[in-house]
Amino acid sequence: MTTPTVDTTQELAAFLRARRERLDPRDLGLPSRRQARRTPGLRREEVAELAGVSVDYIVRLEQGRGLRPSADVVEALARALRLAPVERAYLFNLTQQRPRNADKPATSAAPPLAGLVADLSPLPAMLMNHRYDILAWNHEMTRVLLDFDTLPPAQRNAMWLCLMHPEIREFYVDRERVVREAIAHLRAAWATHPEDRALTDRIAEFIARDEEFARLWAERDIKVNGRGHKAMRHPDVGVIAVDFEVLIPLEDPEQRLVIFRPADEESQSALDRLCAR
């Protein structure tokens, strides 16, 4: 038996009906009615009022009549139906729209992820958002790179450090490749979050202050670095080569967990000596 492909129009209709019918009007502060409800949940009229659309529009959506709601309407429906984050994402996927507020990045580490970063010791690990802001780190990462606690928050950004910090600028053995790939990754994040003003301002700062960044940004390379290799010249123990992995948690998709693993025995030995100090 073959599995049928998804008919997004019909699935959208069924999903909206199911989520409407599971809601208790009393939980939404709606006035009680003397007449008993013949169907569970909210009436279409109530959903329409909560979402700011017409009743006819809700009827046509629930009948699968080929409508494609705008991102604003999808957001309004998600609020009206009290959808959980994963359900909201499902609704946006069904309508082939992108959430308007997808570009509100985390500015602090989710506590479970901050705990995970610490628990990953002795592997160097840190947590970033899509802007490359560094939100959490463990002891080993401070020994490999630098002590982020000594930096003002505005400078706790991996791209800023690579471009502006006098020590980190000369840190990578293959600096141009590292910078090129980081900029290509940042351009992809910028396109995904077009309304993130802070990110746009940060990129403008880099273009104005760093000729290398301006040149590479203009090339419009796109790359998402989920895995790779870096070699670093550490002033205390020499070259450390690492393989890195970038993981995106399902519960916090705007945060990125970065883990370094020594790429060879010499690098493992260097890391052991470094962290033992």
Automatic annotation (TrEMBL):
SUPFAM superfamilies, per the entry: lambda repressor-like DNA-binding domains
Gene3D superfamilies for the chain: 3.30.450.180, lambda repressor-like DNA-binding domains
SMART domains: HTH_XRE (SM00530)
Pfam families: HTH_31, MLTR_LBD
Superkingdom of this protein's organism: Bacteria
Domain HTH cro/C1-type: 34-88
Record's protein name: Transcriptional regulator
Protein's organism: Streptomyces antimycoticus
